[in-house]
User: Which sequence fits this backbone?
């Protein structure tokens, strides 16, 4: 059993990671400022929840002095692409400066290794698809740029200080805990699957489908949806990879299969038995036609393989969660 610090562990992906680590028998401390996370997402009573900011150096010094951690998983960041364009200073402060504070504290207290939550947004407009780790990194918005900057910092901190890390670049995280205990509840919500389910439930206006003139089979853009539980499994395997003495690296995480917007709407209708209320809208600037991950490196090196790759399964788990989550908000 190892002791781990999970930063942002009360958020969507973080709480699923906490669930996975507990099942693996690890001892956990969760650090979260609850700005976007939920205290009741920590469903086990024996987890120590520290409410605070990852950019608070005094707090980090106290944590690292009081506890001997065998690793850190860092999920805390701002994630709204559009908002990052309007408020870039906020994104660079939160995602880059605060992470720098964390890295400096980890080096001073000899804590490591680190698993970092990165994003496919580091690549910018795709030059080819599926996207592998060698694809050029040319982010086109401050959100993607902030994650790219952290990836560069991780390389430099390894070379200078020996801090080992793995950056995991997600494509489209989706779904919910198969047992129904935790799930997605962003505010505001921007992800397609929960937006479609909310439209079915009548909890929001009809879904907007942005563009039906893409060069795809049905004219809607294609994305790679990866089940959040599969993401958590990849993080655990990345930790084990570093504990085995392997070098700092980064992996792309996705199903390797793309689903169009229309295919997702069709899946929602099959799962719920109801058509998704929607209206067509023009394309959004900067939306590529096809974004799919090449995850062969993670599969071969980490021994990772998504268990919930079917879109109907992903939607079904999200649907079960959406029908009960009103009780938790």
Assistant:
């Amino acid at each position: 059993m190892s002791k781990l610090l999970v930063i942002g562990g009360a958020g969507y992906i973080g709480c699923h990671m906490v669930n996975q680590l507990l099942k693996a028998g690890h001892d956990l401390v969760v650090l979260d400022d609850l700005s976007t996370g939920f205290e009741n997402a920590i469903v086990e009573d024996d987890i120590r929840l520290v409410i605070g900011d990852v950019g608070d150096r005094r707090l980090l010094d106290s944590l690292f002095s009081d506890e001997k951690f065998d690793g850190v998983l860092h999920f805390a960041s701002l994630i709204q692409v559009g908002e990052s364009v309007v408020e870039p200073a906020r994104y660079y402060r939160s995602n880059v400066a605060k992470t720098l504070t964390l890295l400096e504290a980890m080096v001073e207290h000899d804590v490591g290794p680190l698993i970092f939550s990165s994003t496919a947004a580091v690549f910018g407009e795709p030059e080819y698809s599926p996207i592998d780790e060698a694809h050029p990194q040319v982010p086109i918005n401050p959100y993607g740029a902030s994650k790219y900057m952290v990836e560069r910092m991780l390389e430099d901190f390894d070379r200078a200080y020996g801090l080992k890390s793995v950056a995991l670049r997600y494509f489209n995280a989706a779904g919910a805990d198969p047992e129904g205990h935790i799930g997605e509840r962003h505010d505001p919500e921007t992800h397609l699957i929960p937006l479609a389910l909310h439209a079915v439930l009548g909890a929001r206006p009809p879904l907007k489908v942005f563009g039906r003139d893409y060069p795809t089979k049905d004219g809607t853009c294609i994305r790679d949806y990866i089940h959040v539980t599969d993401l958590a499994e990849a993080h655990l395997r990345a930790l084990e990879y570093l504990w085995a003495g392997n070098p700092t690296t980064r992996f792309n995480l996705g199903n390797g299969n793309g689903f169009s917007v229309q295919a997702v709407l069709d899946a929602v209708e099959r799962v719920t038995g109801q058509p998704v209320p929607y209206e067509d809208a023009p394309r959004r600037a900067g939306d590529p036609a096809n974004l799919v991950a090449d995850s062969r490196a993670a599969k071969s090196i980490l021994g990772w393989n998504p268990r919930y790759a079917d879109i109907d399964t992903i939607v079904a788990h999200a649907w079960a969660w959406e029908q009960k989550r009103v009780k938790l908000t």
In short: The chain is about 40% helix and 20% strand. The domain at 175-224+256-293+308-328 is CATH 3.90.25.10 (UDP-galactose 4-epimerase; domain 1).
